[in-house]
Amino acid sequence: MAVYIVMGVSGSGKTTIGKLLAKDLNLSFYDADDFHPPENVEKMKNGIPLQDEDRKGWLAVLAENIQKWNKQDGAVLACSALKEKYRKQLTSIPEKDLKWIFLWAEFDVILKRLKNRKSHYFKPEMLTSQFETLEEPNCGIRINVNTSEENILKEIMAKLNAPEAEVGLIGLGVMGKSLALNLLSKNIEVSVFNRHITGKEEDVAKDFVQQNAEKYTFQGFDDLKEFVSSLKRPRKILLMVNAGAAVDAVIESLLPLLEKGDIITDGGNSHYKDTFKRELALRENGIDFIGCGISGGEEGALKGPSIMPGGSAEAYKQMGPFLKTIAAKDKNGNPCCTHIGEDGAGHFVKMVHNGIEYGEMQLIAEIYHFLRFYTKSSPEAIADLFESWNKEMKSYLLEISIDILRKKENSGFLIDKILDAAKQKGTGGWSTNAALELGVPLDTITAAVLARNISGMKNFRVEASNLYNITNNQDGNIEEIKDEMFLAYKTASIINHAIGYDLLRVASVEYNWKLNLSEISRVWTNGCIIRSGLMEELVDIFENSNNHLLMNSDIISEIKGSQAALSKTVGISLQAGYAVPVLSAATNYFLNFTSAQNAANMIQSQRDYFGAHTYERTDKPRGDFFHTQWKNNN
């Protein structure tokens, strides 16, 4: 059986609601006030607040009775139980058998109720003392009593019958809603929360629950305390809110409601350094924090994304099973989810994923643009060519580009009506900043980020086009260049991946993350935006070595046969007047990477000339530094 304790300040309706609940449950009802000794009753009649010493014996008697009622048929008890230590003393039976129901309302609402009560020894003037004493519980269910008794009882019964949620999700944007439905489709008990902003975000959680009521049974909240109370311990909360200040604001609101061992998982695109700080701060409070990269967009979130959680291994043991359940599956049926590493590792890996994604998107865009205007090919013809390429590439981004090129609106192609000004959310730029800090060249990804930046300068570009009047007079034939274009695309894509993975390799050492590049590749084989045939190959390549991708023997054989096509394509494009920043960056990176001798000796000479920065010599051991007085005063 169970004992139900209806708690709250005086005037919240504990006795009235308790009796109604007892009747509905066919249980005996008891009022804790009836167990007070005469001296306590006398004090309250005279308006004197009770002290802890006054309550000590009273609580002991109640605890004994709770044990007795639980052994019998159960009961409903109305009791203020304002402090956590009082509630602990009353917890004399297993927690699963003790159901807390917290009745609450704003001070003015309760005061009005008290003033309307007659023949009760509690005086309205004591309400302030009760509100000051009240420590709101983090367990049980919360019921706002500023409504009818019928509605209060109906809500209590609904919440009592609702199972405690295994996962709580905060933030019902596109990704949040899709992930919630994904969890529910896997028979995981879920509670959802979304903030309430009058006139902007009203009843988002409740509406979401209602919209999906025919298929799923779950609870939606716009009260954070009620949301937290609906979760099983240790609580597992997934944040799907905007990166930055919003994450910190939600964590700050959650912290007073959580207990040691609870877990917060940030599933947004947060900066990995922010995740460092949050993980450390929450750890000091006994709360585990997981910075979790999630890739796949709206469809992936709903059907199965690629998931990259970082944080303590212990926290992952708790949250990992849920994340694995909703993740995409690789070719062997294993979830595209793995514990990436400690602290900010998950968000760093997601950041690099997005950087590689930037490069791949720009690469496809450059080739489309060149073919569209240099060869005067229609979007349909380019889509057909991309489709033939994708039989080998098996690239999700190439796949969606085919659909995009074939999409028509009325009699024309939609692509021709879309403004050529690309936007970004910041993760690509973060990759570039991280690479600069770690001393890693990031040519293709940086070129892709900057290409988006210059695309945004639409007004300047239009004016400059008129001022310079550069014409693209050369024409080409798609049939004549398509084979070399494919080799150029494939080679640039390999180089772009190699650049991204090199950033992961260096960061792994710098932050002692021990990143498993093969396992990261496996997680990226399905569900994520950069999934491709190449990614499948990288699983095996990095299983044998974490070395730079361009040092792999199979990759060397591949690029040796196609690098010339890449250089030739870049030359034709630039000569014809078409910008190809990622194709160019891939070419320059490769030529620099494979040059036993490059131009840096001149750089070192210049630095030593104007700043006495010193240099190393080819005829002396590495690590020996020299300075020269360069100017000949004679």
Poorly predicted runs: none
| CATH fold name of the largest domain | N-(1-d-carboxylethyl)-l-norvaline Dehydrogenase, domain 2
Q: Which CATH top level class of the largest domain fits? A: Mainly Alpha
CATH architecture verdict of the largest domain: Orthogonal Bundle
Proportion of strand residues: 5-15%
The count of helical stretches stands at 27
Note the overall shape. elongated
CATH superfamily of the largest domain: N-(1-d-carboxylethyl)-l-norvaline Dehydrogenase, domain 2
Looking at how many chains there are and whether they match, the oligomeric state comes to: single chain
Number of domains: 4
**Over all CA atoms, what is the radius of gyration?**
33 Å
Largest sheet: 7 strands, mixed
Strand order of the largest sheet: 8-7-6-9-10-11-12
Overall strand count: 14
Report the structural category.
alpha/beta
